[in-house]
Amino acid sequence: MPLFSMAILLLIVLGCVFAPLLANHDPTDFYLSDLNRPPGQEFRFGTDSLGRDLYSMMWYGGRVSILVGLLGASIIAAIGIPYGCISGVAGERVDFILMRFAELCGSIPSILFVLVLSAAFGDGSVVSISIIIGITGWFGLARIVRGEVRQIRDSEFILYARACHASFPYVMIHHLVPNLVSAIMFVLVSSISSCMIMESTLSFLGLGLPVTTISWGSMLSLANKALLLDTWWVVIFPGLFLVTTLLCITNIAYHFRKEGNRKASNL
Amino acid sequence: MKKTLSILSALCILLLSLSLAGCGSKEAANDQGKADMSNTLVYAGESESTINPLLNNHEELPDIIFSGLMKYDANGKPIPDLAESYDYDEAANTYTFHLRHDVKWHDGKDFTADDVVYTYKELTEDKTLASSITSNYEDITSVTAPDPYTVVIALKQYDAAMLDYFTMGILPKHLLEGKDVNTDAFNQHPIGTGRYKFVRWDTAGGMITLERNADYYDKVPNIERIVYKTVSNETTKAAMLQSGEADLAWLNSKYAAKFRDNKSYKTWDFKTADYRGAAMDMNSDFWKKNADSIGVLNLALDKKAIIDGVLEGQGIVAYSPIQRNPLGTNPEADIYSYDLDRFAQEMEKLGWKKGSDGIYERNGQKFHFRIQTRDYEEERVDIANLMSSMLKKAGVDMEVVLVTKFDWKAGYDGFLAGYATQFDPDMIYSQFVTNASGNTMHYSNPEVDQALREGRHTKDVDARKKIYGEFEKIYSQHPGILLTAYLDGNYVGIAGIDGLDTTRVLGHHSVGVMWNIENWTIKR
């Protein structure tokens, strides 16, 4: 078990959940008499060029970043799993069409996809950005789900359920998904981190969340400016938090993969 | 087999097109490499889409590619340019311009009085012209050319700012007559009579190349070539300067401060008449009902803190739209100072009451309005965010919406504006007079209209100063713009550049820096 990663992740998540308790300043306020302060006692991580307290922003920003990660991953699961199940269960022709469609979409670089969608529909809200990230990220998951379903779709318990006229959603929820979980856990967990990365990328490019919505990504979008102004702490702290969180999530995801592999080889 | 063949052929086509594209860009690169860059100035400036003095009146390039009957001297006073001299017949309100005989268009054709007549006719008679300055030429009744080198312009009445407005660049009749000036391809390939000739516009690379006009009728510039790179993003401009991609740029004061101690760079601090503030769209539903409550918001703004925070102290607190004009600066118009107690009292007088969320309400409506700000103009975004934060604390919800391009139809209640009256105070006429050509925010106030009309048509300077002082007082009572600050114009360039002259008060976006570009030199 990656206990270390889990502990760190838990600390960060708890810190974000209890942001109001940890923050010692208003994260949206501008402390105009303390511009570009290096990390110190009052401003633990320093302030940016408009006197915003990075320490307080970090905890509040984490809420948004993690939320986007979770929301995005849920949307990926909500689309990818049913899609894969349908494709896996369906006849050859439908399966072919569904899979080629997913592969076609998956072959387009997702950043391009996301840029176009956020330019067209993005209103800069957390929900819309999560949806945009989610609907462009489910192709890989669908393929894995479909592969797993193919392996078990002719098992007796599924044949029995279908013979009893169980509806497709029933079969999917009660028979397919429970048998898939271990196989797709790795993809699901790492999609949380890929959604967070996508949000940061977009916000950094100025296409995601506006600077007024604090997230680690939108904080990083100040990095350009900070590099010119030699205020390293504006870049380092959000970057450090983001990278640490992502590393922890990835580490946990790898653990699931190992578990999954071990089970398979026991068969 | 068929399938693989078709895929292969598609691949071949793709590869071929890629290699062709590669060749194209390589040739272009070689082309530039060959040109001697030692006497070239690379300037990082604002984005451009058209270069036309009628359509773009506060940008740098129209001023150096075109020239007008008059031009501004170092002190911002109009002196003859394309005209050798002029006479003014006071009784008949008529200007007679005697044009230079030695002026040629950049394409080699002779410049004559017909071009002047064409330009002014276009400006005064073409109803479809999408220009914000047509109101400045309302007083012109006729433009005629008795001979090829004389132009007679008759006015309805005396107009104090007319000579200023005669500085507008003249367009070539032989290229534009009968065409739509708003959209003609000429706007992307301008031919003028000015100090620099347009050579090439690389829209993909965001680069406009100019060459000095060797046949210029006055002093030919020292710098051979100008490469104008179109970048709007302030961070990019600063980064380009740092990496040597640009030689000169206007930077916001925060970035300029970074270059001040560096020996390889020089900083020029110009005074500008450029203000920043939230300009309200008086036609929006919110302000139609609540226009009486714009002025009071000034009381809740700590403008000094904004200047220190965003502008590194490089600016002054704004209270009037013509404050940096010699005929402006009436201290009696400075009626608001940062005072939250007074703010609360005044709001109560106006009938606003704080709701449970701490935001004022009146007649069931929250004090909430939205202003748009372009996301790449960092200094404006910062100013807007600080204003919003200060107003929020006082109980007013000013929502800042970041846009990549101003959208005038999306129903925003205003935008973060900037404007300058660096020359005659009449420059604000087109912006504030009811239905005037530059009045995008639909401001309308009969008293203001009256004052600005009187100011335009009065000759005596002292009398005008009084009139504009009166205007400032009236306007401060019923403002349409929540004025915040006047900026200083910080230009940063490599140490080898010489000749920039900070005598001139610059305009909006610190435009006008190239007013004496013929005297500049560059050493690498």
Explain this structure.
The complex is a heterodimer of chains A (267) and B (524). Chain A has 267 residues and is an all-alpha fold. Chain A contains 12 helices and no strands. In chain A, helix 1 crosses helix 3, helix 1 packs across helix 12 and helix 11 packs across helix 12. Chain A is 75% helix and 0% strand. Chain B is α+β, with helices and mostly antiparallel strands and 524 residues long. Helices cover 29% and strands 24% of the residues of chain B. In chain B, strands 1, 8, 9, 10, 11, 12, 13, 17, 18, 19 and 20 form an 11-stranded mixed beta sheet that branches. A 4-stranded antiparallel beta sheet of chain B has the order 4-5-7-6, covered by helices on one side. In chain B, helix 13 packs antiparallel against helix 14. Chains A and B meet through helix 11 of A and helix 6, helix 7, helix 9 and helix 11 of B. Chain A: It is a multi-pass membrane protein. Chain A: It holds the Pfam family OppC_N. Chain A: This is Probable D,D-dipeptide transport system permease protein ddpC. Chain A: It comes from Mitsuokella jalaludinii.
First-to-last CA distance of chain A = 22 Å
Main pleated-sheet profile of chain B: 11 strands, mixed
Percent in strands of chain B = 15-25%
| Outline of chain A | elongated
Determine the mean pLDDT of chain B: 89
Helix count, DSSP H or I runs of 4 or more residues of chain A: 12
- Count of DSSP-assigned helices of chain B: 14
Beta content of chain A comes to under 5%
Low-confidence parts of chain A lasting 5 or more residues at pLDDT below 50? none
Looking at the overall shape, the CATH architecture of chain A is Orthogonal Bundle
Please tell me how large the radius of gyration of chain A is. Answer: 22 Å
Uncertain regions of chain B: pLDDT < 50 for 5+ in a row? 1-34
User: Which geometry of chain B do the CA atoms define?
Assistant: globular
